[in-house]
From TrEMBL:
CC annotations in GO: plasma membrane
Name of the featured protein: ABC transporter permease
Record keyword Oxidoreductase present: no
Organism expressing this protein natively: Acetobacterium wieringae
Origin superkingdom: Bacteria
């Protein structure tokens, strides 16, 4: 448990920063919604005049963004991206930093198995992404209620946060696997964050070009859609199952790779 406490303490400042950034995005988004509402401009017609590429990049599809649920669903794309980067970076750094910080000396000199070093780190990562998710949920309900006659759309937001947590878990597992396979922290974080951006760019490309629809299965950003969650109240069981199974595989590979690699002191 000492490893767990150390990881939680080491990451508390960064967690606060990430949470504040997420809260700010939600606050700014709802303020933008209020601005459109007060202007009495036909927002749907306004955005319809924009090029399709711009609409895709900003996550604006066929939803009615004059409604709070529709406008909020647009921001789910940004929630996913921010949450993915946070989770993958935590996993990559937490696992790969053993040699950077010379913690490998502890593994060699103390009667501690490598499993006992890794699982508290992953538990700390799980707690971190859960806190990030809860903060996102609370901020969402609070700011939505401010602009929706007190109705925070708790049921819809809860479903959205469940999808977000599954995505966070996937990227935490992905980052930890990179951290175990790549010994250097910089290489691990660069590879993990690069893959996140690759997934994101691929999801945009799939939206832009119909011929690339078959590639949607290769980017987790296409497994859940904000409009489907917020408007239709639907969470794809198949998408959730695939991401959870792949996450489990990545976690297993993390333990296997870390257990087999040589640790330099």
């Amino acid at each position: 448990m000492n490893v767990f406490k150390k990881e939680m303490k080491a990451n508390i400042k960064s967690l606060i920063i990430w949470c504040c950034a997420q809260v700010f995005i939600i606050f700014a988004g709802m303020m933008k919604y209020q601005g459109f509402a007060d202007s009495q401009v036909d927002v749907n017609a306004l955005f319809a005049a924009f090029p399709e590429e711009i609409m895709v990049v900003f996550g604006i599809g066929s939803v009615d963004i004059t409604k709070v649920a529709g406008f909020y669903s647009v921001f789910f794309l940004y929630f996913m991206l921010l949450a993915a980067v946070h989770a993958v970076m935590f996993g990559a750094v937490a696992v790969s930093k053993e040699e950077r910080d010379h913690c490998a000396d502890f593994v060699y000199t103390k009667p501690v198995r490598r499993f006992q070093v890794i699982w508290p780190k992953l538990l700390a990562g799980l707690i971190n992404i859960l806190i990030f998710n809860i903060v996102t949920f609370c901020a969402s309900v609070f700011f939505i209620a401010q602009h929706n006659d007190g109705n925070g759309l708790i049921d819809k937001v809860s479903l959205t946060m469940l999808a977000l947590f599954i995505l966070q878990l996937f990227f935490l597992a992905l980052g930890s696997m990179f951290g175990a396979v790549l010994k250097n922290t910089k290489r691990a974080t660069a590879a993990a964050s690069g893959l996140v951006m690759g997934f994101f760019i691929l999801s945009v490309a799939v939206d832009l070009y119909d011929k690339l629809d078959f590639l949607a299965i290769f980017t987790p950003f296409k497994y859940f859609e904000g409009a489907t969650l917020m408007i239709n109240d639907q969470l794809s069981f198949n998408s959730a199952a695939i991401l959870l199974v792949v996450s489990l595989v990545f976690f297993v590979l993390t333990f296997v790779a870390f257990n087999r690699r040589d640790l330099s002191t």
